[in-house]
Amino acid sequence: MSEQASGAEMAQEIPEEAVAQGAQMEAEAGPPPEEKESSPQEAPQAEFDELSGDGEMLSPEHGLDVILNIPVTLSMEVGRTRMTIRELMELKRGSVVKFDRLAGEPMDVLVNGTLVAHGEVVVVNDRFGIRLIDVISPEERVRKLR
After folding, report:
1. For residues 55 and 3, what is the distance between their CA atoms, to the nearest angstrom?
2. Which CATH number covers residue 115?
3. Residue 73 domain-assigned?
């Protein structure tokens, strides 16, 4: 027989014992899952702790300690501006970009891109730092997200 046997020729080469064994295995396995009858089972009800609406911070015994070690990125934004791609491509050493913020105006302090405070730049041991002037309340932060 040639190496390129057709599918019909290959099917004829399967011993009858193997075909019978396959049929027996299918019979033992039963019908496919979608054909089996299933009785509806009720899912267990989830239980949740009561939330306090008094605005107090949750204490570590309420599970807040689980998230306290998650790292976040704190950044300070000097200002923003809009420009065209042409203007961007024309920038070179010594170019001046004018921002929307006035000199001496507090800068935005962002945590993961969300405004949380306003502050000013300070120098501490030859490094830049932030002195917070105004911290935005959690209620105001949630209001700005909506």
Report:
1. 78
2. 2.30.330.10
3. yes
Q: What's the predicted TM-score (pTM) here?
A: 0.49
Q: Measured in Å, how far apart are the chain's first and last C-alpha atoms? A: 74
The model's pLDDT over 82-100, given as tens digits with 9 standing for 90+, comes to 999 999 999 999 999 999 9
DSSP bridge partners of 110: 75, 115
Binned at pLDDT 50, 70 and 90, residue 127 comes out as very high
89 part of a folded domain: yes
Rounded to 5°, the CA angle 124-127-132 comes to 60
Q: Domain of residue 80: give its range.
A: 69-145
Structure tokens belonging to residue 100: 């929307």
